[in-house]
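User: Can you write out an input/output pair for a complex, sequences first and structure second?

Assistant: Here is one pair. Inputs:
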Amino acid sequence: MKFTINRPAFINQLNNVLRAISSKTTIPILTGLKMVVTDHSVILTGSDADITIESTLDASDSSYGLSIEEPGAIVLPARFFNEVIKKLPDKQATIEVFNGLQVRITSGTAEFTINGQDANNYPHLPEVESENTVELASDMLREVIDQTRIAVSKQESRPILTGIHVTLNNGILTAVATDSHRLAQRKVELPETADRDFDIVLPGASMTELAKMIADEKDGVKMQITENQALFIFGNTHFYSRLLEGNYPETSRLIPESSDTRLEITASDLLASIERASLLSHESRNNVVKLSVNPENKIATVSGTSADVGNVEEEINADQIVGNPLEISFNPDYMRDALKSFGQTKILISFTTALRPFTLVPTEEKANFVQLITPVRTY
Amino acid sequence: MKFTINRPAFINQLNNVLRAISSKTTIPILTGLKMVVTDHSVILTGSDADITIESTLDASDSSYGLSIEEPGAIVLPARFFNEVIKKLPDKQATIEVFNGLQVRITSGTAEFTINGQDANNYPHLPEVESENTVELASDMLREVIDQTRIAVSKQESRPILTGIHVTLNNGILTAVATDSHRLAQRKVELPETADRDFDIVLPGASMTELAKMIADEKDGVKMQITENQALFIFGNTHFYSRLLEGNYPETSRLIPESSDTRLEITASDLLASIERASLLSHESRNNVVKLSVNPENKIATVSGTSADVGNVEEEINADQIVGNPLEISFNPDYMRDALKSFGQTKILISFTTALRPFTLVPTEEKANFVQLITPVRTY
């Protein structure tokens, strides 16, 4: 195996694959980066068993300045190899296997020799067949992930809740996550997929990583699904994620259908007030902020208290306040996450009683996106 | 006590004073920020007992938009107060003491109430008399600190070595630091101070903080010294540092006066080579890099080895190589710190034998700045 490549372009690709490589893995070879050189490409693979990322650097893409002398394959210590490539003196680097598993890296007058591992010992990639393919716009996919991953459970006690439940049915893609205290649900119409359907649970952590990787992706993302894997294809990258096994709980009946108190407000305005109130609630034992809604005189206030530090009270700038008067307490961190997912848009917050979950939806396209939060009982 | 102030300018000043405030202090009131309001100014004080920073916000400076209604004094929880001020909704904030030790902070519709502490319980500032004043250019002072603090000891076993030894004598300011493995010495001619002298040891940590604070300072820094304190005055800030007690060891005889092997090279070039070699040495048990100098064929190479990972060898780009051939091993982290302190300049490295300390000096103005490193015996 021997090839020469432009360092800057190579570093970009290494950084992509490194996202999947954890130093905390229990399978030692997965701390390595697999490098396979064919006659016309270099294929980099990194994996932590949950996620596998494979980047193909094609010699026909001139930005790589790729010149292949001899095909082959090797596994190299990933973080260390990346550090070496980053610090080499010259614009180009030559990477060559010799004496079986030794790798020589030369650039300028610097010559590194690194001990590699046999690529045959690297786990095989999951096989994903291409019969069930859905094509998604990358910005839409990223939005769906970002809007739902906040409600994914961080606790391993119910592993299925650490995932995002994604279904495709009758041309509608639905993504739901809940940690049993809050819930986020996003729907997207995909009329061209009306003939296909699936029902899977994608790990929240994998999807967070995927959302970062496709942030700059202009083209679409192809999604393929098998029994226990999802594959996302974009640019020169294959992103594999394990699926979570088990039945996701039924969530649709959790969303209340009627409301007794309603508030219209710009999400970012309320977010700023909640962040101020949480300065106090974070100093207190039970992290709770109170919202008092008085539709009669059109006033709503947010307040937070810490016995040690002090308190804060603030009238919020609502566009509309209707229904019954209400005092309700909630975890401001849940509220903050939910509000952030709406950006600068105007939202409608609908309450029933002080002890029942309340919902946040955009005032436009109410049916497509909902955040639900369970209040906290304070008496 | 009551005043109104522009938040952005206030936040800048709070950030300055916060540098001195540690949450890990053993004196509880020092987690607080002391705020004294006079008829025409607000004085902010923060301290960790080693460093005290005092900022005076004068009402005559229109950037503060300062309007004072009532003088007074209070101590507030520093980090928390800073978070509150940062997150307030309006451009201005009004701060008012009521009910003795309660503080009301209002901005827009938000109203915070915070519990303060009695300012009389805050430790008194050290008294520094102004008879022994030296005026220093702020960029020169920062350079002197940055060039010497790298050699300050991090170990408390010999507390005096955690300081920078600063003397003024015959119009020459000398700063020296050593952790007994390396030494940094910088001299500056200050002819206008020929009539004054001092001999003090300033804590390295205080000076690092001071160097950061004066980074953007255009005007000079006034330095005043008493028996156990140094005071640095710049802009609207008083920066007090405790002095270290005890005798600093005699260091001048540690610097060798002759050499047998000499190397001239651009500091940043050698730095890059050392950083590559240290990638390997950091993976090995004894963090050592080897330099081989061969004056006969004008070649010098740097190499690093890790039994587990591999090795690297690199010919370095020296301008001149003269004297006896030499193989010498050293801690690459010490070398890196020393090389960084020279920036892009050309340096002369002078060796005697493989077991004796070697020196790095700029090829121009050799007498003013020296970094010394003790090699490592590898056999």
